[in-house]
Amino acid sequence: MALTGQSTDKALLDAEHELWRTSFSYIKSMAIKSALDLCLADAIHHHGGSATLSQIVARVTLHPSKIQCLRRLMRVLTLSSVFTIQPDGGGGEPLYALTPLSRLLVGSQNSASIMAFVLNPVLVTPFLGIGEWFQHALPDPSFFEHTHGKALWEMAGHDAALDAVVNSAMGPWSLTAASLWTSLSGRPATFSVG
After folding, report:
1. Are 35 and 74 in contact (CB under 8 A)?
2. Helix %, strand %, coil % for the chain, to 5?
3. According to DSSP H, which parts of 119-173 are helical?
4. pLDDT value at residue 102
5. What is the pTM of this model?
6. Running DSSP on this structure, what letter comes out for residue 108?
7. How far is residue 108's CA from residue 114's CA, in Å, rounded to a whole number?
8. Which pLDDT score is estimated for 117?
9. Angle at 66 between CA 46 and CA 81, to 5 degrees
10. What are the tens digits of pLDDT across the range 136-145?
11. What sign does the CA torsion over 62, 68, 69, 75 have?
């Protein structure tokens, strides 16, 4: 059935909306990475599960000139359901609260290690070149190896910071990481964690 008139306009508008929404969906991932880097969930948890921006700022490492930027980041994180916001937490400041999602980012036994791995630029960058990778004949290296010129494990062996991120993610999340490795490399994961 062909679309005509207003239904065509509506369908195109809906399609354009979906295209923009999908294209900018990486912002949510990068906002979560920033929340991890700044330990925002830990700062809110320290105050009993809800905190004002001033209380959060007092607990995180943040240059004073970036407080307004943190307010914007918190807005993205609340719109993404990472945190909730209540209009007045006292003194006219909004109160940010943990959600089930952000509770996973609190403390040392949490999902932060696997998120730090998944959102690491070394792991994210290959996804920007998938289109180019598809233009090469098989057998071809994985798109990770195509981007970096070596396997993840080889890179981690030469980069102490990356090695720490990989090892931290492997312990509690070895099955998830093995699945991710298999999908990135096209080869089964055969490693031991310990």
Report:
1. no
2. 65, 5, 30
3. 121-124, 130-133, 143-148, 152-158, 160-170
4. 92
5. 0.75
6. S
7. 12
8. 86
9. 55
10. 887 778 888 8
11. positive
